[in-house]
Amino acid sequence: MSASLLADLRSDTVTRPSPAMRRAMAEAEVGDACFGDDPTVLRLEATVAERLGKDAAIFVPTGTMSNQIGVAVHTRPGDAALIDAGAHIARWEAAGAAALSGVQLIAIEGPRGLPTTAQLEAARPPDHPKAARLSLLALEDTHNSAGGLAHDARALDERASWAHQRGLGVHLDGARLFNAATFTGDPVERLAARCDTVSLCLSKGLGAPVGSVLSGPRELIALADRFRHRFGGGWRQGGILAAAGLHALEHHTAHLAQDHARAALLAAALLRSGVAAATHPVETNLVCYRVDPDFGTAAEHAARLAARGVLVAATGPDTGRLVTHRDLDDASVAHAATVLADP
To answer: Is 265:272 a contact under the CB 8 Å cutoff?
Structure first.
């Protein structure tokens, strides 16, 4: 098989900067971001804040850092936060809420990765000195562990309204928020409207090499800057990377609908194999699946696919994930579909 037919479906983080993005990075005007004078970083932050309808924003190296700063600005040590049990903050950020902010996560198994208001109310700690002070509701859109399911603005608004009525802050892990907007038809500003802070990842569906942006009220973003430095996320000539994020926002969002269509095509091929099937409806660019134990483990299934030039991620003994992204072309998707249908 030629190298051009290799399909790397492990994540949408495997994308490489396009030639145009590399030119933007090379030509970026830079300064020292820790002194607040890198013009490209400032432009990226202003652009994201405007796109999401927020007062301000702050550029950080990773989505995990962005989420953990989001937790930190809403809480104090000993507080509690309500969150879906499968959320990225709860499962894939190395217990950062506990280790960095001293926050107890109250995990709820929500339908489609989004707890109902009834579930939230039932899980809310009592107002008692022996109970943790509840200060935060954390949401996720799209929901990674739920197979990239997208929540629309109405659903997010309902949860945020419940939280605000009880004096809680609301943080949205919107790592793939543009994917959610593409599926639901709600503009990203509308999805973010009732959430106090929003984390947007530039290196997933949007195809930048590095970086996430946390947006929110000006006073919380000023506090976020302190946590950014505490967590080791201060930039110097960060504009080289901010330029990639700006290029992605300007040129890469229109590609997301094609990513979604390709994910649905690959999920159908997987189902035809009889070896594995998606565990969730395929709405965006993620396909989470379960391997039939008669055909071995998820790792063995991934190894068989890799031998034929298709890379996927085994996420558990019998579960895996594949993700479509902008670096795939028609030939690589066709090859992946053939291999997935007959591994």
So the answer is: no
Low-confidence ranges of the chain (pLDDT < 70): 1-5
Q: Are residues 290 and 311 in the same domain?
A: yes
Residue 324 belongs to domain with CATH number: 3.90.1150.10
Whether residue 209 contacts residue 244, with contact meaning beta carbons closer than 8 Å, is answered with yes
Task: Verify that 161 and 61 share a domain, yes or no.
Answer: yes
Instruction: Supply 209's token pair.
Output: 């090499």
Q: Are residues 10 and 42 in the same domain?
A: no
pTM here is: 0.95
Q: Are residues 251 and 205 in contact, defined by beta-carbon separation less than 8 angstroms? A: no
In this structure, the answer to whether residues 310 and 186 fall within a common structural domain is no
Q: What is the pLDDT of residue 296?
A: 94
Provide the CATH number for the domain around residue 199. Answer: 3.40.640.10
- Cα–Cα distance list, 231 to 64, 68, 173, 234, 262 (Å): 11, 9, 18, 8, 37
Give, for 303, the enclosing helix (H) or strand (E).
Answer: helix 298-307
Query: In this structure, are residues 9 and 322 in contact, taking their beta carbons and an 8 Å threshold?
Result: yes
For 140-199, write each residue's pLDDT tens digit.
999 999 999 999 999 999 999 999 999 999 999 999 999 999 999 999 999 999 999 999
As a whole number of angstroms, the distance between CA 154 and CA 321 comes to: 28
What type of residue sits at position 188? V
CB 146 within 8 A of CB 282: no
Range of the domain at 187: 31-251
Query: Is the Cβ–Cβ distance between 148 and 176 less than 8 Å?
Result: yes
Give the residue carrying structure tokens 């607040």.
36
Asked if 295 and 335 sit in the same domain, the reply is yes
Same domain, 212 and 330: no
* Pair 145, 86: CB distance under 8 Å: yes
Query: CA-CA distance, 124 to 81, in Å (whole number)?
Result: 9
Rounded-to-integer distance, Cα 203 and Cα 176, Å: 9
Given strand 286-291, what is the order of strands in its sheet? 276-278, 286-291, 319-323, 313-314
Nearest to 171 by CA among 216, 119, 114, 211: 216
DSSP 125: P
Number of domains in the chain: 2
